[in-house]
């Protein structure tokens, strides 16, 4: 039995596990996140895949914080494994904790495997996240992607690794989501086969197509493909952070200036960044989440799909 609360942030779902998650043992948060991926793949799939979950869902597993002053520690995961940070799930988690009466409006620290982030819980479901420092690693990388042709883009870190490119094969709208997904998968596969990585050989597992906004108050629109092969319904907090790092390093956005980022479904985040003490780019993401359901998941022994519907080997 597992107690969960579901929310969505700009359309992107988060499932917070309240009770019944696996014991990840001891060690750093990053080590425990790796253990979740290596030893508890059935748990991740059972919680997030159909029939209990749905495409694009991200799970949030609470752990006791290393610093007792933090609100909580958390490991985010999707059906493909764990995520370093997750912007939309951090907003969803903060709104869920507020809904449960476990977090007051105000400023809190949440520990993630890639570093602590700050959340400010405001009234009316709004949350402001101060993300981990973000940076661009490579600029104007030219790729020859089979089936897609020449595309150029940047590699950047925003709490996860991203390849960001303006060379989308179609307009960034929902009518083209299947073509965009196929194209992003082709880029993901090409990066992996070509051995193109982030720092320390890290896999670049998120692909971000960037384009012009549709809304009059927005500055950009994106389509982000996540490692589980699903597209992000929200503007992707870590992807938006990677985008801010590129804008900042190109001198196109000064600290403090607002950038409104639209997602492929039209939901939006208000973004800006600050410079840290060593000049690092610290993205600030403002968005809102809504709690949708409280549920107890059951996993009967005789249920053939208790660990989710998965592609057969
Ligand atoms: O909001 O950072 C994000 C995110 C990553 C994967 C899905 N959402």
Q: What bound compounds does this protein have?
A: pyrrole-2-carboxylate
Beta-strand share of residues: 35-45%
The residue fraction in helices comes out at: 10-25%
Main structural class: alpha+beta
Q: Element order, helices and strands? A: EEHHEEEHEEEEEEHEEHEEE
**Span between N and C termini?**
27 Å
Number of β-strand runs = 16
CATH class of the largest domain: Alpha Beta
Q: How many structurally independent domains? A: 2
**Basic shape:** globular
Describe this entry's structure for a reader.
- The chain is of the alpha+beta class.
- It has two domains: 135 residues, Diaminopimelate Epimerase, Chain A, domain 1 (Roll), CATH 3.10.310.10; 141 residues, Diaminopimelate Epimerase, Chain A, domain 1 (Roll), CATH 3.10.310.10.
- Helix content is 20%, strand content 37%.
- It has an eight-stranded mixed barrel, surrounded by four helices.
- A hairpin with a 2-residue loop joins strand 1 and strand 2.
- The radius of gyration is 19 Å and the shape is globular.
- It starts with a strand and ends in a 16-residue tail after the last strand.
- The chain binds pyrrole-2-carboxylate.
- The site of pyrrole-2-carboxylate has 13 residues, from helix 3 and helix 5.
- Pyrrole-2-carboxylate binds next to helix 3 and helix 5.
